[in-house]
Amino acid sequence: MASLDAYQGALGKHRAAHLLRRTSFRYTKQRIEQLASMNADQAVNSLLTLNNLALDQPLYDDFNTPAVEQVKWLIPTGQAFPTTDTYYLDRRVIGWWLNEALEDAGIGHKMAFFFHQFFTTNINTYNHATFFDYLTLMRWGSLGNIKKIATKVVSDNTMLIYLNGHQNQKNAPNENFAREFFELFTIGKGPQISPGDYTNYTEDDIVQAARVFTGWRLAAGRTTLDPETSIPRGTATISRHDTGNKTFSSKFQNTVIQGGTTATAMYTELDAFVNMVFAQPETARNFVRRIYRYFVHTNITQEIEDDIIEPLADSLRTNGYEIVPMMRKLLKSQHFYDMDDSVNADEIIGGMIRSPLELALQSITFFGIPIPSPYTDNLKHYFTFYGSTVYERMLGLANLNLFYPPDVAGYPAYHQGPEFSRHWFSSTSIIARYKLPQMLLTGKRVIGGSPSGSIGIKLDIVPWIKNSGISLDPSNPYQLVKDLLDYLLPVQVDNDRFNYFYDQIFLNGLPPSDWTYEWQNYLATNNQTEVKIPLEKLLNHIMYSPEYQTF
Asked: Cβ distance 216 to 234 under 8 Å?
């Protein structure tokens, strides 16, 4: 029986590492050790927080001003945007978000990305500034109330353009957003019963919902601010709104939403509509299933449905759709740590394939590789490292075109069964995934473009082993390999697998004393030659391994 009972006692390193891999893009030895000493309640509470941003927004170089004034905000308040092409602006917003995700020690950015792939839009939809506003909204709602974020996304400027909401008016209704609001953003369609009749709503309900959504217009100047979030949004235009009553089907208990003749009435209608949709139990279930597949596992059996999904959906409804109580219950559970059955092999820990985003950012943060500064190395920070390296090679060539989802349903790995996370592995993505350690160790572009070009960072493996504290005794080859495997792999390997990494890869069949001698010689002379080769070989094979590709 799957159990939501809380795991008791200190987490320990293995379970702490699992929790951190699943909830944060920032994966470090220090954070694992902090969480390992906590119980599940303490550890989860420390992660369920929105940490401060390192930078409120991206910076850019203004080469037309004196050098001392060159670095400025990309999205200045009350000023004109930089005069440059869209590519230049978009890449800085993406680089900013990636850097904030890399720096975030909590769950904030992991949740914000969940909401991006749930309320999907595309950075090409309008401009860099409105997409920045959309990302800000996803972060604002990431640990808040799902009903609120579902309400506010209706008037988000990017969403209005992306799903044609700005074209939806009383004399020419557009049903695109209404259809996706039901099918993708809230209750889900369910199996079709008959033409125009689905399990959870009907085609007539889509028509009525589209009437509720009429009258919203793009506010291109970003001067209309949401009073609760202070984030720019679209405007409510009552002259374009259908002011009549909206009557829904028996799927929604034949609810009638009263029309009104003022802009205020548009908000009243919207609130009534969202309350109606979220009053249906299936809305909570659909949301929890998406959360489960994102944070826990892609396989939802009937046992999981009964013992995990249904109780969490009840918790979500009971708490007025506040996200944190439900997430706390899930992440503290015995089920999340795979401690609720007698099966020796883990089904959840190491049970999903890491997305390119987790693979790249968690690798970079674990090795503590310094990132170029957006202040002093602006172009190197945004374009060489985050643009050309992380965005294009580590993510794009690995089938994650970040913020360019292929369609309104989002990225297939998060919603398209039965493969789900297996979508990250294909003949087109495998090279980028397996070239990651080589790129980090050489600091070169080993795939795509010039193989000699710099990626903006480099992992110096020998001093990292010496100074990181990853192993208490790097001169002991057995302990060194064990420590690396314990931190880098989600699952504990058996003796045969360990000996593969230890004897065949690291020692290359030589006696352990040879390594001890070479390490001590390195400490005495600072000559890395004889220790660098086996360390790089070991790291390559660990990061190539199927175990490292999962989490």
From this structure: yes
